Fold this protein.
Amino acid sequence: IRYGVTDYLLKPVSRETADKTLARIKKDLDELRGENSESVFDNAAFNEMIHYINEHYREKLQLGELSKRFNLNRTYCSELFKKNMGISFVEYLTKLRMKAAADMIAKGISVQEIAQKMDYDYTHFNKVFKKYYNLTPRQYKQKCEDEDAQ
């Protein structure tokens, strides 16, 4: 107490408990310094959300639901995407899905199966893929086969 202890944590410490404690400490320190900056918890929550998206990009994901899940304001979360990732949530999710789809096409997996795995309607998947790569999935597959033949 003489040394200004803010809290103590008993092992094992959950990530959520550690994040909340660190956020409270940072807030206290910022107030002492007269600063008003973004909290550690928000960054940690956003980073955790990005990790979740990277692991679950094949599932149906919506920013509103993710924001709630990771205790972030939806608008603020959208701003964090632009600031930290340089693109919107939808663009980030599409990028992950299209890179994975391209890898699967190169491995010979059918476009129908890929669309299903990525939670896309077949026709919509073809349109999104073409917009992203400027090639249809069939043209992309042919390109990969031509490159492998060389």
